Every structure is written in C-alpha cells, then in structure tokens.
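The pair is set out directly below:
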Amino acid sequence: MVAGQKKARVALITGASGGIGWSTAEKMAQEGYRLVLHGHRSLEALKVRVNRSLPGTDTLVLGADVRNPEEVTGIFEAAESRFSSVDTCVCSAGVWPKEDLPLDQTDPARIRNVLDINLLGSILTARGFLHSIRKTGTRNTSLVLVGSTAGQFGEAGHTEYAASKAGLRGLMLSYKNEIVSVDPDGRCNLVEPGWTATPMAEPALESDKAVRRAISTMALRRIARPEEVAAAICFFSSRDQAIHLTGQSLTVAGGMEGRVLWDGSQIDTAAIRDELR
C-alpha cells in the first residue's frame, strides 16, 4: 500500500448469492471494498458469478450454514486470515416461503427453518462479528441488518417470516449498545425493504393480485430494485456519510403504510413489470 493511502475496508456479506446481497456486493466493490461473500445452497453459482462479474475485486467466497455457530465462526476466522480484520458486516441471508399459509396450517418445521435462518442466523452472525472486533481491535465498524416491512406491518400467510424480521429490531437496539464496549465508534443499523424484484420474490410478482396487494399500500406505485436497497445498506456502512447514525432503521418501500392507498383499478401491473425489465 502506498504511504498515505487509505487501507481498503473489508465487508463481509451473508446471503451474497441473493438479489439484495449480490447487489450490495457489486456496489461495495465499486466503492473499493475488499469482500468476503457468504453463500450456502447457491455457493457454486456465487463463485461463478464472482469470477465473471468481479474479476478485479479482492474477494473471498465462503460457504456456511448460518444456523450453525461453528460454521459462522469459521467465516470470520477465514476472513481474518485473509484480510486481518472485518470492518463492515451485512446480514442479508434469509428465506421467504412461497406458499401463503395461515399459522395454524403452517408446519412447525417451516416455522423453525425460517426463524433459524432469518433471526438466529443474524444473531449468530452479529455474535461472530462482535467477537472478531474484540479479537482484532478493529475500529469504526458497522453492522447492517436486512429486515423487511413485514417486521413493521406483519404479513398474513407468512407469520413466521414477519416475526423473524421483527426480531431484528430488538437485535439492533441491543447490539448498538454492546458494540461500543469493544469499538467506541461501532455502529448497528437496520434496512427494511418492502417488495423488491429479487429472485426470491419473482414468482410472487408474476401474480397481478400479489402486485396489486403490495402496491396498494405504497405512495410510490413501483417495485424496488435490489440495487436501491443496496444503496441504503452502503449508506449505513459508510464512515463518511453515516458516522453518527446507530440504532436506526431505514425503510426502502416507496412510502409503504399499513393501510390501503390505492384500489386495484389504479394500479397498472403491466407498466410496473415493464419498468423492471
């Protein structure tokens, strides 16, 4: 590194193979971060994508099950071995079951899986990050949690998902007070996207009924793109732009409310899909 040149920051992103996680990786690469990208079921596809799309970025791709504390610890140990420390951590790993089911008809195995990946996985990742900061003495660190508007307003048919995302607020509000005990300038914030055109949401967005239901509660009648959510994540991660922001949530959902703003006749689903193409 040239004398006087800033050391490139290191960002660890879980769920980097997903729409929001990958867009965040791309944007952080553009901003000069070195990357630790986590994948699980789509790990091999993530490796191919990194080789194709991020050839000039110093990137480490790792596989782990975020439900397993030993595997999560292993991600941070590998990151420390390669880059010495981690400055920014983004918890983006998550699942959303496609089928709408009332809670009393939802299999306990589905409930457990969603809670374990979305909430427990984020807690274990935050735990691993805190331990890494304590061990390496890294300063000006940032943890960004990726929640959902379902955590604010609920989501009928996906109660376990809404509960898992609502829990991230409690994690953020507690973690912001713990991180400063090991890093006086450490921060923790939450980004809560609404409907976003990710691979996970694409099947649901093929339904006119689902699109109208989502748009009817939003002032801006459009579906977000993953890169728009990534911009909010990178904002919270920035030392320059968000150095005094912690314990805050930013909703990226077109002004979504918990009430209907538009009836179905006012929503042009074809135009909404055209904008995403």
In short: The mean pLDDT is 93. The first strand starts at residue 10 and ends at 14. The chain has eleven helices and seven strands.
